[in-house]
Sequence to fold (310 residues):
Amino acid sequence: MINTVGKRIIKYILILSSVMFLFVSCKVAFVGGRKAENIRPPKLYRELLDNQFEYNNLNMRFSADFFIGDEKEEFSGMIRMKKDTAIWISLRSYNIEGARMLITKDSVKFINRLDKTYYSGGFLFLTHRFDMDLDYSMIQAIITNSFFFYPQTEDASKSISNFKSCYDSSLYCMSSISQRKYVKFYVDEKNPERWERKLEKEIGDTLGISSGESVVQSNDFVFQFVKVLPELFRINDMLLENYIQQQSLYVEYGKQFLVENQYFPHQINIELITPKFAPRLVINIESLTIDAESLSLPFKISKKYEKIEL
Fold:
């Protein structure tokens, strides 16, 4: 039987894990890279596109550790993906399936077998839990170690032209704002009061509101930092931060391994920080199958389950 702590933590991980599981085959060899000359963001972006993971179907198995506060939960699961179509996720603890989820471009469905509840609707279900605008392409990109813009954009050329190069001694780095501006205004840990005054001024200058007024989410206050492995041109780590909402998502991919002539991370470490909680997820890859001939995505909601209302 699953204990009380296990039940409570699974309620967190059944949502968190749906956007964050990365997998790769075990019997492969690590390949590293070496940094050469600096690359400007538009060219780095093209290299990322040229070297992104190619597939039609993916079938993945994993084990993972989930941390929240002093509590730790171990679990396992499976992800099946049909590119640009559907992401199917099954989570298990103590060899018992606790949750199942099916994500398509316009819908999110999941069942929680622990408390016999279900949800069927749009992406607002995930947005409510992360306070982040999520869509199918973003989730798919995170799972496959691919680049995406956050916030989402309809004009990739214009968006990447606004990115700046940032410094790293061994990795290529680009960000949606300059590193100097980020440090100047938003990384002043020694004097938080001065940081808050700077932030209020920046909000006022950008949004045209005065101190004390309510502030809604604005793309001007969402940062994206991306570091890229040289030669392989795969993402090493990425930070998304909304400093008005005091939220950040950090995704770090483990060593890249060669799998059927392509590179894929061996492990992933994910840290989510919000005003409510700060979970961390560490995933270890057990197996990956690419382009299997058949890939089923079974999903059935029992009539005995209670619908979750947002």
